[in-house]
Amino acid sequence: MAFDFLVPVDDKVLAHCELLPPQALGNQIQKHTSKKGLPVLAMSTFALLGVHESRNAFIKKPERLDINAIRLELYKLMAGNWNTTMVDLGDVEEGEKVEDTYFVVKEILAGLLEENVIPIIIGATQDITFPVYRGFDGIKNMVNLVSVDSRFDFGTDEELISSHSYMSKIITDKPNNLFNFSNLGYQSYFNAQEEMDLMERLFFDAYRLGEIIADLPLAEPVLRNAHIVSIDARSVMAGHQGGSSNFSPNGFNGREICAISRYAGMGDNISAFGIFECENHPQSFQLIAQVIWYFVEGHNIRVKEFPAGDDSNFNKFIVPTDTEELIFYKSLLSERWWVEVPSILPLHTKTNTPALLPCTEKDYLDACSQNIPDRWFKAYKKGF
Q1: Given 88, 110, 187, 320, which residue has the most CB atoms within 10 angstroms?
Q2: Where in the chain is CATH 3.40.800.10?
Q3: Domain 2-301 indexed as CATH 3.40.800.10
Q4: In the predicted model, what is the mean pLDDT of residues 78-105?
């Protein structure tokens, strides 16, 4: 069983927990220890998992990621007014081959998903997103993946999978369960024009760094439908990560990446969350711990709602345009928006009824100005 390959939490980390106040996360998380073994997954909401695999790093890692240092920073944080529980499964070490590590991660993910436990993965390199995605095989037919990254991470067909090309592997690998891919925070000078053209051809969603920074709530509808959220720590500016040469001077700041993480936790379909490409620096350890905290916080405050029929909790708006009649819904509780998208694929739903796509108030205002929202157009073309 894949869980047998998990390495328990280090005794030094466990000893540190003895010094923490009872309200700290370190004293509320059930841990995989060498004495007690694996914690019980039943009734758990989240499972923390470290992955040390880094052999497919685009730029070779000079040293091993200190995941225990991130644990210590996370354990120090105070729990919120939460009704969820977390277990710490320990770490996955490098297998004999990279594919062995991928297999173990995939099997662990599948086991957690079957138990309705949301894995929170701390990984050395972002190519671990690939086995996380493959963990959904046989469990979820169509998966929505959101990557918070300055790059799209497409590679050439001949290129071996790496932390800069894992998305090509996800798109081409069989069975193809990827329904939608969205990127938040790409920076144009890091991406070839061919990659941007590919995003357009596949009707994937991409939002430039400046777009998100200027209007952070724009990220919420993108993350609302995500099953997997994969954060590349290099999307955060160097100054907020300890100034490593592997990071760019431009990117999200600490407050913005935490807000995005909170939106991810609030998502209706979130099933796996990962943060990768971290650096061994005290400031980076603290930021990653806080990103995880905000993800858990978001999940605890989320409101699961969906417009249906004549629900009095929603306002319905019909907007006629020159080519389409768009139907929007606004929640009176959370003030979130949805728009109907007719399915052009008969098999999308048994009744071929319109699907509901998360959107923003700006999309509604654009439609009122006779401008079809770009997200609606892409979803329609894809057969949403």
Answers
A1: 88
A2: 2-301
A3: yes
A4: 95
